[in-house]
Amino acid sequence: MQQFNQELMNFLTAARTPYHAVAEMVRRFESAGFVGLHERDAWSLEPGGRYFISRNGSSIIAWSMPKCRGLEDSGLRMVGAHTDSPCLKVKPAPELYRHGFLQLGVEVYGGALLNPWFDRDLSIAGRINFRCTDGALDQALLDFDRPMAVIPSLAIHLDREVNNGRAINAQTFLPVVLGQAEEALDFRALLKQQLRVQGVDAVEQVLDFDLSLYDTQAPSLLGLASEFVMSARLDNLLSCFIGLDALLAGDTGEGALLVCNDHEEVGSMSAIGAQGPMLTHVLERLLPQPEARQRMLARSMLISADNAHGVHPNFSDRHDSNHGPLLNAGPVIKVNANQRYATSSETSAIFRDLAAREEVPVQVFVVRSDMACGSTVGPITSAEIGVRTLDIGVPQFAMHSVREMAGVQDSWSLSRVLRRFYGQETLGG
User: Fold this and answer.
1) 275 and 202 in one domain?
2) Cβ proximity of 216 and 146 under 8 Å
3) Angstrom distance (rounded) from CA 269 to CA 183
4) Into how many domains does the chain fold?
5) pLDDT surpasses 90 at 262
6) Is the per-residue pLDDT at 65 higher than 80?
7) CB atoms within 10 A of CB 189
8) Which UniProt keywords apply (predicted)?
9) Same domain, yes or no: 117 and 256
């Protein structure tokens, strides 16, 4: 478990944006012998082969072909997660110059908790698209990798009622301070300079970018017994890493797949989101004949892994008293009668049986009946491809904050169950 959590923190450090998360997953898959495929090419898949594709550089699907039987007889053991997290994105024309301060305008991505973004050491990372000096178009990942921006709070002396509640105006409160100068900033020139620092020299013109702010504080273990992990983007890179770890460890000969989509935090409706066709396109290429594909899906199951709300000791009344998950007490089955989660009694029973075989405790979450329930990629993917689905998650605090908290036991426990799931010969039914 100690090694697992150290690798988790290494992954979180590298995965500062969805693009960086996928790049790190690609690196790990390639090191384990997975073969990268391109959607524009013809595929030749071998029994027992291990493959991956990425789309837009921010969504990825990796899978293992069964060794001794066809996919229609094996089925697929699938795990789904998402690569994106709520954050602040740099606007396309971000330059602001006010009172001698260089600032950038930002846009809120997803349902972010905004207060924790103030007074943090922030940096910028993402993808840059540019024209090369030879006229070709290219792209590269960029990371300033140092504290370079901040959103300063207003002093309490100038807002005496701030501790009694203050709404944050995303347009006027959130522009970040980069520094001071006597003239306005040319942001694209700054990006070109940083690309040169990173060894990308043949840039004639930066054409566009997709950049996010991130907190530079490194992931850490804390607590009297180091029982908690603190990091940015635990929702949902924690699940991406758990699925990655389980797939790399589980070369069992069965059909196994991991899908990590972008854009979950904004509804999943995109070419690379769970409500888009990416997974369907892969399944159609694995088994082009519709009847064979349906037989495969009837033998398959998807586990949607996305973090759950742990019982906060200061706000325990926000949970149903019989369904309040505790940190370090096991992964959480998420249930909702209105199908905001895709769990059924059948898929829940399968997971409980797998967990029991690993001696892993299981918890259950049901939202209070007088509160609205969130959702995941589970119901979306289940509806798109028609597969049995379970929603599971590691309990955490401070979901959608700039820095989140989970238990070190829970991630390791879920990885062990998913390893067994990937190797399970049959999935009931």
Assistant:
1) no
2) yes
3) 41
4) 2
5) yes
6) yes
7) 10
8) Aminopeptidase, Hydrolase, Metal-binding, Metalloprotease, Protease, Zinc
9) no
Helix (H) or strand (E) holding 251: none
Cα–Cα distance between 239 and 411 in angstroms, integer? 8
Asked whether residue 429 is assigned to any structural domain, the reply reads no
Residue found under tokens 């384990």 = 32
Q: Could you tell me the sign of the dihedral formed by the alpha carbons of 429, 80, 241, 60, in that order? A: positive
Same domain, 96 and 118: yes
Q: Note down the domain range covering 383.
A: 2-85+232-423
Top mean pLDDT of 26-30, 250-254, 336-340 is at: 26-30
Does the structure show a pLDDT above 70 at 122?
yes
Would residue 110 be called left, alpha or beta, if left means φ above 0 and alpha means ψ between -120 and 50 degrees? left
Residues 173, 8: Cα–Cα separation, whole Å? 33
- The tokens describing 284, both together, are 């159609």
Of 323, 331, 394, give the one whose Cα is nearest residue 361: 331
User: Nearest CA to 102 among 211, 175, 171?
Assistant: 175
301-305 vs 122-132, strand pairing mode? unpaired
Average of per-residue pLDDT across 57-79:
94
Residue type, 130: F
Instruction: Give the CATH number, domain containing residue 198.
Output: 2.30.250.10
CA–CA distance, 406 with 222 (Å, rounded to integer) = 10
Predicted TM-score (pTM) of the model is: 0.96
Length of the chain: 429
